Amino acid sequence: MSDIKLLITGSQGRMGQAIIRAAEAQNITVASTVDVGDALAPALAKADVVIDFSSHLFCDELLGECLKQGKRLVIGTTGHTNEELAHIREAAKALPIVFASNYSIGVNTLFWLTRKATELLGPDFDLEVVEMHHRMKKDSPSGTARTLVEILADVRGLEYDKDCKHGRFGDVGARTPKEIGVHAIRGGDVVGDHTVIFSNVGERVELTHKASSRDTFATGSVRAAQWLAGKPAGLYDMQDVLGLK
Questions:
Q1: What pLDDT score does 32 carry?
Q2: Coil, strand or helix: which one is 166?
Q3: Cα–Cα distances in angstroms (integers) from residue 172 to residues 168, 175, 182, in the given order
Q4: 16, 41, 213, 223: which could join 10 in a potential S-S bond, CB 3.0 to 4.6 Å?
Q5: Is the pTM of this model over 0.90?
Q6: What is the percentage of the chain residues whose pLDDT exceeds 70?
């Protein structure tokens, strides 16, 4: 499936450049690129699949043009509003879309392990998620951290918006059995570190993934673009791409 043609959005950014390198390494054609101020429609017409790591603010325009032209889409951007997420789900009724918070094979293994560990350890373990990223990252918590919390909440029968505690400050009282803590650290040039902590009286289990290069995310996104070939309309993620579901 190396004959697919890609449109890379945000191609001048760090992720955009990494995706271009990953595509070239696999002999996949980057037919066009789009950055701020570029016309989307003519660039999209040259491609089969879009890989988008630009900004959630570009989401609605990109979805609208992909729907007009019937183009497949890989979304790696995070920080979407609830309204934008709803637009992605609606577009997936007509288009095949891979939408994932992280395209690393290692992180998706972490997702799988997190679900299994939560099921095995049971309700007596307190749940916390800690993530660290570079100083330039704008959204918090990271999309990957949010996915980890959503996995924990799903297994425990909890709700992200209701039971997730974003850091703690002041006299917040003792930790409740239901809450899931999530903590964001920013600094330096950290590509992405994520740790899920399961704590009980007398023991603690930690699952950690550390990324040292954006190339792992880029390679995964190109793999997702290839995987989409021939797929029916629907909303997929990297667990589908990797066959982990």
A1: 97
A2: strand
A3: 7, 8, 15
A4: 16
A5: no
A6: 99
